[in-house]
Please model this.
Amino acid sequence: MAETPNYRRVLLKLSGEALMGAQEYGIDPEMVGRIAGEIKTVKELGVEICLVVGAGNIFRGMTGVASGFDRTSADHMGMLATVMNAIAMQNALERQGVDSRVQSAFPIASVCEPYIRRKAIRHMEKGRVVVFAAGTGNPFFTTDTAAALRAAEMGCDGLLKGTQVDGVYSADPKTNPDAERYDRLDYNTVLSQDLKVMDTSAIALARENNIPIVVFSIHKHGEFARVMCGQGRFTIIARERV
Model:
């Protein structure tokens, strides 16, 4: 594998489900540890890394709404669940010798730092991995949008989305074997075809700030590092080539 990464500073977006492993709910320490190992490998390539983790393994806001919760209350519960996932990731990273910090979009001073943009950038410059928790700190915004927002604020030159599949498809490949897989897409195509990669706010934010989105499978061992070096299987979403 080439040892020269294509990106200098990246944000890795993980779904809460990525932390479940083979479980149906919650956090699988083995899976979290494996992801931490993947992050460590990429960090050792000289890349500055920050993370946003979802909450679907613990509580999903829209599911809560469907169950009768007020949307604002449900989203706040989901944001708190992301803090739990962020602390789990921090613990796994530090068990592997990777210095890290958790920053929350709303203050929880006894367990993590508040989100401060300049402080987060300084942490990364010092070689620490920063895990952003609590989404944007506001209801009605997903962790996908939080990922695009933090990537823009941190000056990231890539947004990596680790998913359950090896790229973007025209339909769910798990239920539709005829789904077409894309190697490259532009932002407008993703939006116009409603490809469900990330929500529209996240795609629009990435487009406005010219941040490429790279979608790959987080479940394939070593794939994060391979994708960072332009290898492996992934879909890149960027501006249309002129």
User: Anything to note?
Assistant: The first strand starts at residue 9 and ends at 14.
